[in-house]
Amino acid sequence: MSHLYEWCVCLQAMVACYPGNGAGYVKHVDNPNHDGRRLTCIYYLNKSWNPKEHGGVLRIFPEGKPYVADIKPLFDRLLIFWSDRRNPHEVQPSYAFRYAITVWYFDAEERAQAKKRFRDRTASTGQQGSSSS
């Protein structure tokens, strides 16, 4: 694993809004295919959030542990965790508008290798397109 100083500055960000109709997100890991993501950082923007009424809890299933971690999406909370298989997670159903900003920090070398794999794959199949940076 590379050292922190070899990581890129954040290269990818996402703003998420769950519409409050029971929407959630299935259990997943952010970097299942070695795309370079190392850290997932989530910042919550939900004022007056009541998890019992509004739901929307982020559930983390730490690899090899017999427990889960339930994180309430409370206003001004910042959550940081490893993006790989160590931390599968899901968003449980939300019953109010739920807002979050996610930023991923990348490992420069792994990201470069992922882009090369993408270019090689698309070149060999004759597809056109570009990899996001």
Automatic annotation (TrEMBL):
It is an enzyme of class 1 (oxidoreductase). Residues 6-107 form the Fe2OG dioxygenase domain. Its EC number is 1.14.11.29. The keyword NAD does not apply. It comes from the Eukaryota. It catalyses: L-prolyl-[hypoxia-inducible factor alpha subunit] + 2-oxoglutarate + O2 = trans-4-hydroxy-L-prolyl-[hypoxia-inducible factor alpha subunit] + succinate + CO2. Pfam families: 2OG-FeII_Oxy_3. Its cofactor is L-ascorbate. InterPro entries: HIF_prolyl_hydroxylases, Oxoglu/Fe-dep_dioxygenase_dom, Pro_4_hyd_alph, Pro_4_hyd_alph_FE2OG_OXY. Keywords: Dioxygenase, Iron, Metal-binding, Oxidoreductase, Vitamin C. Gene3D superfamilies: q2cbj1_9rhob like domain. PANTHER family: EGL NINE HOMOLOG-RELATED, PROLYL HYDROXYLASE EGLN3. This is hypoxia-inducible factor-proline dioxygenase.
